[in-house]
Amino acid sequence: MRVKVVVVGGGIIGTMHALLALEVGHEVVHIERDPKPLSASVRNFGLVWVSGRASGAELETALRARQLWEEIGSRIQIGFRAQGSLTIAQNEAEFAVMRAAAEMPDAHLRGFRILDRAQVQTLEPILQGNFVGALQSTQDAAVEPHLLLSGLHNYLRQQDNYTWCPNFEVVDFYHDETGNHVTDISGQKISGDLMVICPGSAHQGFLSEFLEGAPLRRVHLQMGTTAPMAATLNHTIADADSLRYYPAFKDLALDSLAPQDPVAAEFKMQVLLVPRFDHSFTIGDTHNYEEPFTHEIIEAPYDHLRSVISSIFGAPAPEIISRWSGNYSQITSEELYYRREIAPGALVVTGGGGRGNTISPAIAEETIRSWPK
Hints:
Blueprint: E1 4-8, H1 12-23, E2 27-31, E3 47-48, H2 57-73, E4 85-89, H3 92-101, E5 112-116, H4 117-123, E6 133-137, E7 141-142, H5 145-157, E8 162-165, E9 170-176, E10 179-184, E11 189-192, E12 194-197, H6 208-211, E13 216-226, E14 236-239, H7 242-245, H8 262-266, E15 272-275, E16 281-284, H9 300-313, E17 320-331, E18 338-343, E19 346-350, H10 356-370
Helix pairs in contact: 1-5, 1-10, 2-10
């Protein structure tokens, strides 16, 4: 049954809802408060990170999303690449934890393989620094951050039955017998049979009454981009601190690892380095859960990133040419993301932070499967 679907939010979760709704035959009106998306979806790594997902439902969802990402990337210019990842062990204790990870019952689903130093350098000759080996995941992938939303939106705008509505900041939502409706500050109204509101970290405003008491928090992070390098890197690189932050590894002997560097511990850091098409890297990141968040860009985390990258590469880290911070919405309960029906046929979907880019197509697919046929 073809219906009119209104999607509020131009980030990756909202855009995936628009894309999948359109492809099952619905009419889609897609609303964004800014001239173009400017929030968390354009301030992240572009990672499709399967390797760190918790065993069970989370991993299954990530694997389904990984499949959907590849299908979407095969026909829409979003810079999808199945490049895999290398989590680098810089000492034997880290390598021992990674060997244990490679023996987990679902390690094959994550594409895990243990590589010694020589095997790492065969794959990535650019890595000549201080490390003993790595945990490879062939299931991890990436999309190009600056191409992702622009590529999806360009594709959508070429389709019949899709309407893009930027500069529409919703101030009110209501439901009546004619459907679901949102209005902006001027009183302009957009209505649909079904509505999906994907607000990202914008938990306040007209949504406050619907999100009161919701198991959600906002997370603040800092990231950056380097200058291009002459050499090529073909994998995403993570340091062993990432083992501390991803739930896949929570039952391993993490207490055998050396204490984190004080800066990394203070800012709850992991080092992630994602190659871009122009041979530059997206690097990060930090985690701050205590509001109010600072508006300052703190330099100490970038010094730590440069130090770790230099140690792994065996050469000076590339210059960081841009720095930014951002906020994302993260669910704090056991669910993978937050979904609430706020009226018949109207949903709020958010809280995917930390895995939102990875599982966004699977989130949208679950929504659309729940709609009347």
